[in-house]
Amino acid sequence: MARRGGRDEHDAFARPSKRGSRPRTKQRPEHADAVVGFVTGVDRGRYTLLLAEGLPDERAVHAMKARELARTRVVVGDRVDVVGDTSGGKDALARIVRIGERTSVLRRTADDTDPYERIVVANADQLVIVTALAQPEPRTGMIDRAVVAAYDAGMDVLLCLTKADLAPADELRGLYEPLGVSVVVTATLADPASVDAVRERLRGRVSVLLGHSGVGKSTLVNALVPSARRATGHVNDVTGRGRHTSTSAVALRLPGAQGWVVDTPGVRSLGLAHVEVEHVLAAFEDLDEAAERCPRGCTHLDGAPDCALDDWLAASPDTETRATREVRLTSFRRLLASRTASV
Ligand SMILES: Nc1nc2c(ncn2[C@@H]2O[C@H](COP(=O)(O)OP(=O)(O)OP(=O)(O)O)[C@@H](O)[C@H]2O)c(=O)[nH]1
Ligand SMILES: [Zn+2]
């Protein structure tokens, strides 16, 4: 359900024609010489971009935002137009003049540590929820919430269950597959070949990796992108933090330009205050259709008066369909309920 493509606007920007089809206005300088860059890193107002991705003149450049974008946030995954010194030389500094329309926006809600709602990553296709099968024990409340955040953002979900050498995956698989979540099981250290299934699911896509400290996310990232050399190890008992000092997201390219993984070392939870039920519902075609007959403002939760999802279940044509629908509805309602659960 993640929308790929949608690059037309950017292609238009990249077109070298000086007589572009867009009107010139005084407010918005044309910047006909702008080129498109992909934001791979953000560090205190300094952006790292990849230009001419996949072309012979592909290069990384550093850039700042143009003054007119001072109040606009640029995040990892953004496609931006840049002007100025785009040569990619060591001291070259380009200028971001426009941000491309975003196909998806993964947000985190304001919380105790950060009073602002923020966009974490733009234009990602899928959220990879990295969860250990043991050490630490999986917490389904956290997984549910991440699924909600991804569906709200318009992203697919891949549940990556790590440390399969320590515990079986059947139970979690049974909980999440009915929600349309793809599941892969890995044992990165004991069985490096198990990572191939993850690689397969990442190919050609922009994927955000999200996981709690100690689940083996850095170990996985290092297996996927050996040049990344993410710090791995145990959690600091005193601070409760991992060894990472950086907290901003960074996009890492899979070998052979087979897609991007965005690591989010500082993001421990996404927060769901901004989530709209309708966005989550849209990820479930069958339920979405059935819910068209719900009363206005229906919460679709268990016991919601006249919720058409109950009628949809009751109208199952046979026992097998009923069993499938029941699992799906129960799982969906569990997801919705996780929005307001305290964790
Ligand atoms: N048994 C087992 N241990 C693993 C596996 N993958 C990683 N580990 C171990 O789990 C611990 C945590 O791994 P990391 O990769 O550092 O975990 P992380 O999720 O990046 O955590 P932070 O570094 O705190 O963000 C390390 O001691 C790893 O060696 C696995 O497949 N099986
Ligand atoms: Zn309803």
Descriptive report:
- With 343 residues, the protein is of the alpha/beta class.
- The chain folds into three domains: 92 residues, OB fold (Dihydrolipoamide Acetyltransferase, E2P) (Beta Barrel), CATH 2.40.50.140; 159 residues, 3-Layer(aba) Sandwich (Rossmann fold); 62 residues, no CATH class.
- Helix content is 24%, strand content 23%.
- The chain contains nine helices and 13 strands.
- It has a six-stranded mixed β-sheet with strand order 10-9-8-11-13-12. Strands 1-2-3-5-4 form a five-stranded mixed barrel. It has a two-stranded antiparallel sheet with strand order 6-7.
- α3 links the parallel β9 and β10.
- The longest helix is centred in the last third of the chain and has 20 residues.
- The N terminus is likely disordered.
- The structure holds guanosine-5'-triphosphate (GTP) and zinc ion.
- The site of zinc ion (ZN) has 8 residues, from α8.
List the helices and strands and how they pair.
Blueprint: H1 8-14, E1 35-43, E2 46-51, E3 59-65, E4 79-84, E5 93-99, E6 105-108, E7 118-122, E8 126-132, H2 140-153, E9 156-162, H3 170-176, E10 182-185, H4 196-202, E11 205-211, H5 217-224, E12 250-253, E13 259-263, H6 277-281, H7 285-290, H8 308-314, H9 319-338
Parallel strand pairs: 3-5, 8-9, 8-11, 9-10, 11-13
Antiparallel strand pairs: 1-2, 1-4, 2-3, 4-5, 6-7, 12-13
The protein binds guanosine-5'-triphosphate and zinc ion.
